[in-house]
Amino acid sequence: MTRHHVAIGALGGTIAMTSAEPSGGAVVPTLTGESLVDAVPGLADAAEVRAETLAMLPSPSLDEPTIMRALAWARAAVDGGAAGVVITQGTDTLEESAFLLDLFWDHPEPLVVTGAMRSPQAAGADGPANLLTAVRCAVSPASRGRGVLVAFDDEIHHARWVAKTDSMSTSAFRSPVFGPIGRCVEAEVVYGVPVGRLAPLRLGNVRGADDPRVPLVATYLGDDGYLLDRLRAEDVDGVVVAGFGAGHVSPRMAEAVGRLAADVPVVFASRTGSGPTGRAMYGYPGSEVDLVARGAIGAGWLPPVKARLLLWALALTGANDHDAVRAAVAERGTP
Ligand code: ASP
Fold first, then answer.
1. Is 109's pLDDT higher than 60?
2. Counting Cβ atoms within 10 Å, is residue 196 exposed (0-12), middle (13-18) or buried (19+)?
3. Where along the chain is substrate bound (predicted)?
4. Which of 13, 65, 76, 305 counts the most CB atoms within 10 A of its CB?
5. Annotated binding residue at 59?
């Protein structure tokens, strides 16, 4: 039987964190990609794995350039013959990395992201099981052509909709509204939805800012637009506002949105964690109808952090004028 080769790139996170104190203390990233692989029983039966350590960071310390370097590494691994790629990282920003990778992943080979909620020294550590699931997912022919996937707790999610929805549970990931697209059961990877994905953004078109700046501003009760008004249009490549409910803000915040949207794309998203921005339901000052009239763009089903990364990626490719952003958000913010 031909054994498939899977490349594993480790970025750090709880899956790679240990404590110096044997009795257990605060953990920090210490483990290489190779030691993660060595800790997984049965992995050698699933695939021939080659592990590399790409970074050793807690995931709040990752940034877009680090993820773009991981993307380049993953592309090189597939060009070098890997049947699939797995990236391990911290769970805190995993949904963002996976989404950014998916925007640019232009291979049919699966790129699967995973991590762990319990560190390797903890009782019931979930890293080995998640890594095994991710490798099985990466070699499964059923995973081909689906873009970037997140394998966690035996479930498989698409990068576009997955979100970390619990700060401590081992089942921390959900895809609100749409649900997981597959499961790994008795070593078999099974999908409930047909193969398909949106066309990736073209990296060859990169001609925009090297490291675009796209702030995310969360609104709150009584927001008078103070923070948004501090942003100067010339310093940013776009802005995302995490609004109430279906993407709403206060009347004074709506005025601030309008002032900024005159010069840079401003996208409003829902801070609820589930469901889309409205389109035509409400007409009061600060509603979706009002914000669109002021030049802002509704994120649709994209949550604030993913709308922000889409703007970042568009700015990277130099295609972030209002019309380009409107079109891209309409396409990627729709199921
Ligand atoms: N809690 C995190 C994790 O699960 C820490 C991190 O994101 O690096 O990996």
1. yes
2. exposed
3. 59, 91-92
4. 13
5. yes
